[in-house]
Design a protein that fits this description.
Mean pLDDT: 92
Largest sheet: 7 strands, mixed
Number of strands: 7
Helix content: 25-40%
Oligomer: single chain
Strand order of the largest sheet: 1-2-3-4-5-7-6
CATH topology: Aminopeptidase
Length: 149
């Protein structure tokens, strides 16, 4: 289940955020909570909670945006430890893709996150270039996918 993140969700997200964000970034040290608050406050798109159908507690966070009228970019996707590999992230991505908001999709993967790269490859994404950028940020790989008609 996807729903907009609310102020009441933030304390629950804070409990798993440092480890989950470190995993996404491919680093060992937990990420500081200030980064979570900055990401939510500065998101220029949609910030969604991933939750189980029978429990509204946030188990994941997905941030996406529409950089132009033809693309949807997944800016951040993370799940709490112990809930990865169960299909929650895949289902969240599929729900967004099937929403009809775009036909082309992009995601960035930190070079140190091998499992993240594998996730996007498994979802049908491939390395590519994002047309709205001159070059990718250092240490990140752009992954793209176009929906079939």
């Amino acid at each position: 289940m996807l729903r907009p993140v609310g102020p009441d969700d933030v304390p629950a997200i804070e409990t798993w955020w440092p480890e989950a964000a470190a995993t996404v970034r491919g680093v060992r040290e937990p990420v500081v909570l200030d980064d979570l608050h900055r990401m939510i406050d500065e998101a220029d798109g949609e910030t969604l909670v991933i939750a189980k159908a029978d429990d509204p507690a946030p188990i994941g966070l997905l941030i996406s945006r529409l950089p132009n009228d033809r693309w949807l970019e997944f800016r951040f996707l993370a799940l709490a430890k112990g809930l990865r590999g169960w299909g929650y992230g895949s289902e969240a991505v599929r729900l967004i893709e099937e929403s009809g908001r775009a036909r082309r999709f992009a995601a960035e993967v930190y070079a140190g996150n091998g499992l993240g790269l594998y996730f996007w490859l498994r979802m049908g994404y491939r390395p590519g270039e994002l047309p709205w950028r001159k070059r990718e940020p250092e240490g990140k790989i752009a992954m793209i996918r176009e929906q079939k008609e």
